[in-house]
Amino acid sequence: MPSRWSRNADQYGSLVAVRDPHQDGSPEMTFRHLYDTMQSFAAGFHELGVAKHDKVALFSENSSRWLVADGAIMACGAAGVVRGASAPAEELLYIAKHSGAVGLVVQDGAALGKLLAAGQAHERAQEPNPLRALRFVVLLWGEAEPAHVSSLTCPLLSYNDVLRRGEASLKAGSFSPAEVSPDDLATLVYTSGTTGHPKGVMLTHGNLTYQVRNLSYFLAVQPGDRVLSLLPPWHIYERTCSYFVLSRGGQQVYTNIRRLRDDLTAFTPDHFVCVPLVLDTLHARVRQRLAAGPRHRAAIATALLAAGAAYHALPPADRGTSDGLVATAAGLARRWAQILGAAVLAALLTPLHWLASKLVYGKIREALGIRKTVVSGGGSLAAHLDDFYEALGLPVLNGWGLTETSPVLACRRSDPPEQNIRGSVGVPTPGTQLRVVDPETLDPLPEGRQGLVLANGPGVMAGYFLDEEATARAFRAGDGWFDTGDLGWVAPTGVTGSRCAGHLVLTGRAKDTIVLSSGKNVEPQPIEDAVAASGLIKHVVLVGQDKRELGALVWPDEDALSATPENSLSPAELEDRLLDEVARLNSSRPDYHHFEHVAHITVVRTPLSVDDGTLTRTMKPRRPEIMKRHAATAEALLARLRG
């Protein structure tokens, strides 16, 4: 990766690489300035003792200075250990200790103060304080406070302190970038684990450069194209997209969720990289603005939007293309029946769609500010969002991947447009192999059959740091095949009229991890274990895949209820009482995150048992069987959750 920043500077030197309008002191940097600053910062790290193969913790939110620190760490041949500054202090201390970080780069004084307080709590409990092992601490923003200096046993420096040290080192000729190979570790990205401790995903320089080289297969970025950067940089999806955009001479503008609406119109990005939740929020905002206008205009606009959505819901053959997905799922006879039936609708909807494009879509698109393309990842894309943005003429490139795959495994394409197949996550990244297998036997399945999706290729991680057991589980299929934990099927070849052979359709998750629409991963087990400690609750199963929030199916302890005042409550009152209990126990966990809040529950009175397969022999709920037997109840609960 370090050589790419040098190449960028040589190729795009005077073009603006990054703009950071909401931070003081770093409004914008050209590609040459960015590279020179990275080199100075790297030389400063070198003066602080950072050497090849070291680990440096980088706990901060997105900014141009994060990018400088990240590039500087790699230029030393070290690996950045990344996480957001807003993560729980205990989690950050664990990551710093587990990774063996020699230094810490942290967002600001407030974030450092949180870590110092947690470290001091360790010492009062006569436990090791991970901060004592650090050789240095650097604040990306702000200056060191005396209280922070006195609480540390290592030097505390500001961003500018490190730059000044590095500039002096470069003038003296005492620093040169480390030589790194594709197999060298580039970064450790910690992700949630089923044990409650996060796991360190080891991504190499080869993993990252593979993504940078090949994302152009899906997204065409030209020099000077502007991209808004909204997502956290420790999210590998945002990070590799950022590397890719800059490698093509694109301009990255940093924003945040509070300023997103204004920045979309102020900077009018050519491309927008986000998660489905953001697209849903923008869609809802359009609906609200329509509703707030004159009633007759709102009614017309809403009707035209509905017509556009119906038009895009037609079988693609009626719009001049054929995707073949319906043929795979329902058979050719049903496919042709749908096409014939939809032909009548097409004749009615096509002129309405044309009228909507003239009267409504242009104004909405102008208000959104996005010029060319939307890239969506980190969760499945709801059909109504696909309809909405496609109607506006904004292609949504929906992709799929994991932290462990650096991340993009597959994505939809907009060139040619007929390859942007709605309902799919597109085709594999060049060089990546996907295999659909039986989840139990791991035997390969034919095209069109649903199974567990395995991945192999240059983007797949080296393994989990210091966790051979978890690594072995992830690669249980052997020969470098990574178990993605996702279920899906591949559209078959040889279907007449189909243009989507090889496109992947995901249908669910084989493992228990719940991925919210925000892209956050939730491991249910720690939450369920905490809630099960209640004297009123016997079993609990979380739901919430692709929703903004969590819900829970709750089985009360009938024996305990019969002996308490809760036994006389109405069903609605009991649900409220148990929801309070779930909230209390969940939020009291030491590693609780706000996005793990359980918003709704459904009380289930049908008992679970070993005999019907809903309980294991150790009396633990068996999630797949429960979701199968209580599908209607679970679907009703999911419908109550925000999408």
UniProtKB/TrEMBL annotation:
Organism: Volvox carteri f. nagariensis
UniProt-recorded name of the protein: AMP-dependent synthetase/ligase domain-containing protein
Annotated GO MF terms: long-chain fatty acid [acyl-carrier-protein] ligase activity
InterPro entries (UniProt xref): AMP-binding_CS (IPR020845), AMP-dep_synth/lig_dom (IPR000873), ANL_N_sf (IPR042099), Chloroplast_AMP-bd_Enzymes (IPR052987)
Pfam families: AMP-binding, AMP-binding_C_3
Domain AMP-dependent synthetase/ligase stretches: 7-465
Gene3D superfamilies from the UniProt entry: N-terminal domain of ligase-like
Gene Ontology BP annotations: fatty acid elongation
GO cellular component terms, A-Z: chloroplast
